[in-house]
Amino acid sequence: MGLRGRMAASRLTFGRAAAASLACALLSGLLTVLTLRWQFGWSDHGQIATVGAIYAAGAGIGFPAALLATSFALPRARRRWRIVATVVLAILAILGATYLIFFLEHRSYYSQWHDAVLTRHWFWQQFFTALGGAAQFAVMGVRYFGLGALALIIAASWWVHRPAH
């Protein structure tokens, strides 16, 4: 069964998936901005907007990827299992996509001290920059999603997989 057939079997519509993905991205960015402003006391509006945009982009990339993976892996599964799979995959995909964007920004900052591109030393520098960025993201970055991010992912997953009327 091809991708189109699997998506049809899972009853996932493009409009519902696009609306949920856009809402997830926008609300995730808003939750990040609110968390940075009121929970952590950030006051620089430029930095808050930049970090909020990174987290919104991560959710905007990760949630549709999770929906696609769920539709591909579990096209005929019961609704309950598709929701659970979407929630788990969305958490992993959103964190992964957000970290990838975070890493690219992190790497662009540290690239001024890196060796020439595609040398052996450069690859080691990329590896350790990615490793350091992952540790920093795991310790400090994950909490910027805010307390409502899990509820948002669960609600979006439920809404996408609800029966069509």
Task: Characterize the structure shown.
The protein has helices at 3-9, 14-39, 45-73, 79-110, 120-141, 149-160. It is mainly alpha-helical and 165 residues long. It has one domain. The longest helix has 32 residues, at 79-110. The chain is globular and about 55 Å long.
Number of strands: 0
How many domains comprise the coordinates?
A: 1
Q: Which parts are unreliable, with pLDDT below 50 for 5 consecutive residues or more?
A: none
Number of helices: 6
Briefly note the structural class of the backbone. mainly alpha
Average pLDDT figure = 89
Rounded radius of gyration (Å)? 18 Å
Q: What percentage of the residues does DSSP assign to strands (E)?
A: under 5%
Q: What distance separates the N and C termini?
A: 26 Å
The assembly state of the depicted protein chains is single chain
Q: Determine the fraction of residues in helical runs and give it as a percent range.
A: over 70%
Shape: globular
Largest sheet: none
Order of helices and strands: HHHHHH
What structural keywords apply?
165 residues; mainly alpha; 6 helices; 0% strand; globular
